[in-house]
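Hey,

Quick one before I head out. I ran the complex with adenosine-5'-diphosphate overnight. Inputs first:
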Amino acid sequence: MSTLFSDIESLRGTGKVKAEKYRKIGIDSVYDLICHFPKKYFDFHCNVSVQNAITDEYNCIKLKIVSKLPIHTTRNNLIICKAIATDGIEDITVTMFNNIYAFQYLRTGYEYYMYGKVTENLYGKEMTSPIYIHANEKNHIQPQYRLTQGLTVNMVKADVKQAIGIMHNEPFETLSEDIRRKYSLETLMWSLENIHFPKSMKSAEQAKKRLAFDELLRLQLGMLIMRKNSEKHTAFKMKKSTNISDFIKSLPFRLTGDQKKASAEIIGDLCSDIPMNRLLQGDVGSGKTAVASIACYFATKNGIQSALMAPTEILATQHYKTLSGFLEPFGVRVCLLTGSMTTKKKSQIRAEISAGNYDVIIGTHAIIQKDVEYKSLGLVITDEQHRFGVSQRSALAEKGDMPHKLVMSATPIPRTLALMIYGDLDISVIKQLPAGRKPVKTYAVTGRVRSRVFNYIRQYLDDGKQAYIVCPMIEDSESDLFAVKSYAENVMKSDLKNYNVEILHGKMSAQEKESVMQKFHDGKTDVLICTTVVEVGVDVPNASVIVIENAERFGLSQIHQLRGRVGRGQSESSCILITDNTSEECRHRMQIMSKTNDGFEISEEDLKLRGPGDFFGNAQHGLPPMKIADLSCNIQLMNDARQCATEIIADDPLLEKPYNNPLRMEVIRLFDKDIIG
Ligand code: ADP
Ligand code: MG
């Protein structure tokens, strides 16, 4: 007997071969199949007459097959199937290419709803490559699925029907009636049935809402539980009286108000025995590193080791330089540990770390490897955290007894999304930029004026400044997009032939990247032609102009990140966006970039333009994958899910009450490990 969670192969009519195909698209159990939601629907409701069909568009027409013409194969093996059909008044030709299978099922004298593109020529109207259902089919809305070779829509439909039948025998529900009523949600059973076989598009929407809500809710619950779990532990409680004023006075600048506030919040957390779980959000160049250095100094004075993890070696090295510059004069021992160091060097440093001879350890993910042992790790700082997944966050946390955690992100995220993605964290925000920072002047132009752009760049270069040029690709491809390598070859022969040009991209080894960045940093390179690898936090104050080719390819927040590479020094800086895309949307996006330098405003706009889907779609958030929420969720639903999760957790912090068991199972399934512990 097949049950909901038994193997997909237990379905009637599903043998080894078909089961293998299902597994290929991630379906292992009967329930997985139910959760294989349609990617879209065809609505056969709205049907028109042949006469009223709009030509060159998709129409749905109820047609009776009058006659089928002989199948015809062209010289290049194209199989053409034609039939004459009628709506009772007017005839139309129905044509299918290379689809004998679908054609064979059409029977003369029978009626179908046919959906396809209608064209008109001298001989009359024609519908090409239609999909169809029998006119007596009750479900006028037909699901379409993500498939794989050998798996057809009809097979999936039949199997899903069977699976839903099985679920009817063992129905379950994760949300109480109170919750469903409060957030206007249908039952789980109804929603799972209607996501596959909706009676109307409205039912499909309702089902989608419920299922997306569930997914967001599970995500929130997982986050809140992780948080509750970490609060159960005790962290090292540092001393409020620790004096840091000499250190702050020694910094080469005065802290901004927001920097002071963030530092105070962090220090407040460090002086509690509940482990800190804080996100420090601040626009590029807002001075998060200085705040991090204060936290490290504070920890060191309390006899505690700090670790700072950056996503790339370039960034780790840069942080090492900055922090050792600030901290070493105060006797703080800072070290760098990265993957590309020699084995000998690494083991040497590791030994020193475990002996407690370093206070601040900076590096890439190398610092969270199993073989790194700390003497007294009590503070863990992760920079540019959106590049680290939830699991990496927790791997690092497992290092110390239960260290205080600070996560720094330069991607301003609208508050709702931040709560969604970092639901397990408190948030500090630096909005104010350091005084005297000049906003980067931003221009959007088309490729026709590229030679003028190069004139402009050369003015900067001749002034002793440096430039970045960003391309979306590394190597030439079939697309027309600019690629770093060929672009560099070109300009080195032409527009920039008298300048030092270097390239930087993600396929280079860590060492190559490092040495290129070093040279750029030291001013030996004038122009760096690169992909978005420079996006993250690279700090070269003398770089004053950045050109972004194929600007239409980048999200607003991403362009903002790139733009943050310049404007870090004293002089005026520029950002030039080049795009040949003339669509209204692209123009609007470029306008926003030219108009504002405020990362939070930009991210709000980005959210409005692209919807949360893209924020979730963007694999960088490191969250468990979303199946349906990214297709349909909206801000309201996110807020609802978050509120609901908070209420559930307030009542049952670890989902231990029997009635929360189904929900608990779902949370565990989503996070793919027992975060509940
Ligand atoms: P983020 O990491 O937030 O992008 P950084 O900490 O790298 O920013 O700071 C960017 C630049 O601004 C650095 O060169 C830093 O020395 C400088 N800076 C930081 N805080 C201040 C401040 N309060 N006043 C002036 N300059 C500052
Ligand atoms: Mg930074």
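Residues 616-621 have pLDDT under 50 and may be disordered.

Talk tomorrow,
K.
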